[in-house]
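Sync notes, pocket subgroup
Present: LS, DG
LS reminded everyone that the earlier model was apo-only. Rerun requested with NDP included. Inputs:
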Amino acid sequence: NQKIRIGLVGYGNIGRGVELAINQFPDMEGIAVFTRRNPAEVNSVLPAIKIDDILNYKNDIDVLILCGGSATDLPQQGPELAKHFSTIDSYDNHAKIPAYFEDMDNSAKEGQNVSIISVGWDPGLFSINRALFEAVLPVGQTYTFWGKGLSQGHSDAIRRITGVKKGVQYTVPLDQALEKVRKGLNPSLSTREKHIRICYVVSDEGADQSKIEQTIKTMPNYFEPYETVVHFIDEEQFEKDHQQMPHGGFVIRTGESGAGSKQKAEFQLDLESNPEFTSSVLVAYVRAAVKFKKEGKTGAFSVLDVPMSYLSDKSPEQLRKELL
Ligand code: NDP
């Protein structure tokens, strides 16, 4: 049984996570990392290769995992690469997913490849649960809460403030809001009513901490519309407690079934490392791309189009025996 051969495109947090995750999937092997940077500057374990040479590897790779950013990398790299390789990506710009799907579908069909887009946890496993709960409980309301999670954009914004040496921001769901939803009260809640922002800051020596706190709390768009809490800590504590990229959250649907009984369905993720978990999901979907391709399917697909058994390396018979 030949292993599935995977190429990685881009080596950031997700690229590193995918490289690690492959080791836990016995039916997969990593072949190379393709990068836009000088390969000598990329400290991957797998061989790093200039992205310009990627077409030379067409016969050595079954599926590419695209690990670039959603803002500018994937919209450009995805449709180009889908003409030549089957792909998996974690495109997460929710509003633009339909347009991205269209582009990927055209390219993948042109190259007779399979592209599974927007794989991860949100979009990804959260989307699957929203779809599942909605389908089985048609009368009801679905809620998504995020956190506790590190927000890269908000952490960057804190670090740009004068007097801030180091800083991180976590988005945390508000207990009162979660409680109301879980009780089935069907509240209408804006994002700000569902989440609180908690910041941990190391200030420069002699910096005015109350001024920093004020600057954070009044920052338009980023913090001003939210309940924000700022904690000042020392550098040692920062290094000890705030080096991970945790995330997670909840998808909850409450509703009523036929005779009016109250029903609640809930899915939760509590992740110590967002990129490592996302990467693990990406690698599992490689199996689905390979199976789709074998069946002669071409074009783009989302996680909602992939049968659950296609994610496993076990046969459908084995899965029925063990998991049904
Ligand atoms: P990074 O910013 O870490 O990496 C993005 C790209 O930037 C890399 O592929 C790499 O490309 C380049 N890069 C990385 N490090 C450097 C560096 N030191 N100098 C120059 N360039 C660098 O992004 P993440 O890996 O954290 O995230 C990628 C995407 O994953 C996010 O945009 C997000 O959309 C998505 N995501 C989706 C989730 C989901 O649930 N669906 C969850 C989490 C993330 P190259 O090697 O070619 O230079």
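DG: DSSP finds eleven helices and 14 strands in the chain.
LS: The mean pLDDT is 96.
Action: DG to write up.
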